[in-house]
Amino acid sequence: MYNLGGRRVLLGVAGSVAAYKAVDLASQLTQMGAQVDVILTKAASRFISPLSFTSVTRRPTYLDMFQASLAEPEVHVQLGREADVLVAAPATASLLARLSLGLAQDLFTLSVLCSSAPLVVCPAMDANMWEHPAVQGHVRTLQERGALLVGPEVGRLASGRVGVGRLAERDTIIGAIRYVLGKRYGDLAATRVVVTAGGTQEPIDPIRYVSNYSSGKMGYAVAEAARDRGAQVTLVTAPTSLPDPYGVTMVRVRTALEMRDAVIQACQHAHALIMAAAVADYRPAQVSSTKIKRGKAEALSITLVHNPDILAETHVFPHLVRVGFAAETEDLVSNARRKLRERSLHLVVANDVTAPGAGFGTDTNKVVLVDAQGEEELPLMTKYEVAWRILDRVASFLRGGQR
Ligand code: PMT
């Protein structure tokens, strides 16, 4: 799991029926290693008790400024100054207005005014309110000042109406927090990274294709880890059932030929390419425009032709750090080393796809990192942790480390 490593999150909760969802957000952030300080507005405390937040964060929950001020008169200064990120979730029309105008009438707005940390704003309100020019004006002002707007999403609202106004999903908000923290503190900030994921699908006819078992999990983990370290990430992905990672530019492709074009395009201005996709080495020579019918013949042959070697083609970018994977069922390291040499790569992630807990579809992986210097065998770990270790190597190559 991604670790927030003690980062200070100041969570402002305003008076919305969605306030209860902020408890789950605070809980998840705490479980991810953040120190979460929660401020409830007066209206929020009508919807949800401070005890709920204190129970999950194990920290005091702050209410209105006068109550807090009695014990700690400078609490707004301290909370604002110590925060690594400020999160307003849910943000009502009223809180958006106060934040936009700098109306220091509640402890959260006061603390925001005392802070230089990035602000993530997650509105929740009825669709009519959200669309009102006054609200939109405040949102624009906040965005112009650098705030990151997350949501609101379309769905069923408290009024029973369906429209735009629902608080963004918890994991989307957490993705946004990781994104802004990466930009602020990440070692790959200002780095452009291209990642590929998933198994390409090579059509036979309109309803059938040739593919493989890749779920995309490994590539998505690399994209998320690079995003968490501040990189500007483009994820070229074959079809998967995974949610889009927040803050990552998605390029959806289906076939190896489409992936090749997308990768070449994305690499024009990139610093690193990490190819976790399982690209089909072959595609049907002919694609039938109509469904191939069951015939009388005992067998049906499909002629396959070579797909381009995408990684090899990226050698035209001389300054690009290029990382390939090697999905192997035998001779893991020697095959990986051959791929490293033949494609002139910086690093090959050798993946024994027959090992328990490794390879296709799993949440964990077991790999050997192979480069010109030697081999490093990693223990079984989550795909996110593997991604982090790969990015350590990429960061070192980018700093001018040996190939
Ligand atoms: O997606 P998951 O379910 O999480 O599974 C992860 C994974 C097993 C797919 C992943 O860890 C992995 O090993 N990906 C590479 C799979 C693969 O295609 O390996 P390969 O040995 O066939 O290819 C070697 C490298 O060349 C790969 O980086 C591949 O992206 C690239 N390639 C392959 C063929 C081709 N025509 N062009 C390429 O660039």
State the major sheet. Answer: 8 strands, mixed
Apparent shape: elongated
Structural class: alpha/beta
Please identify, by name, the CATH architecture of the largest domain.
3-Layer(aba) Sandwich
Could you give the count of β-strands?
Answer: 22
CATH class of the largest domain: Alpha Beta
Q: Give the full name of the CATH homologous superfamily of the largest domain.
A: CoaB-like
What is the CATH fold-level name of the largest domain? Rossmann fold
Mean pLDDT: 94
In angstroms, what separates the terminal alpha carbons? 29 Å
Number of domains: 2
Bound molecules: ligand PMT
How much of the residues is beta strand, in percent?
A: 15-25%
Notes on the structure:
- The chain has about 400 residues and is an alpha/beta fold.
- The protein has helices at about 20-30, 45, 50-55, 65-70, 75-80, 95-100, 105-115, 125-130, 135-145, 170-185, 215-230, 255-265, 310-315, 330-340, 385-400; strands spanning about 10-15, 35-40, 60, 85-90, 120-125, 150, 155, 160-165, 190-195, 200-205, 210, 230-235, 250, 270-275, 280-285, 305, 320-330, 345-350, 365, 365-370, 375, 380.
- The protein has 2 domains: about 10-180, Flavin prenyltransferase-like (Rossmann fold), CATH 3.40.50.1950; about 185-400, CoaB-like (Rossmann fold), CATH 3.40.50.
- Helices cover about 35% and strands about 25% of the residues.
- α6 packs across α9 (about 135-145).
- The protein is elongated, with a radius of gyration of 25 Å.
- Bound molecules: ligand PMT.
- Ligand PMT binds next to α11, α13 and β17.
Fill in the keyword field for this structure.
single chain, 403 residues, alpha/beta, Rossmann fold, eight-stranded mixed sheet, six-stranded parallel sheet, 15 helices, 22 strands, binds ligand PMT
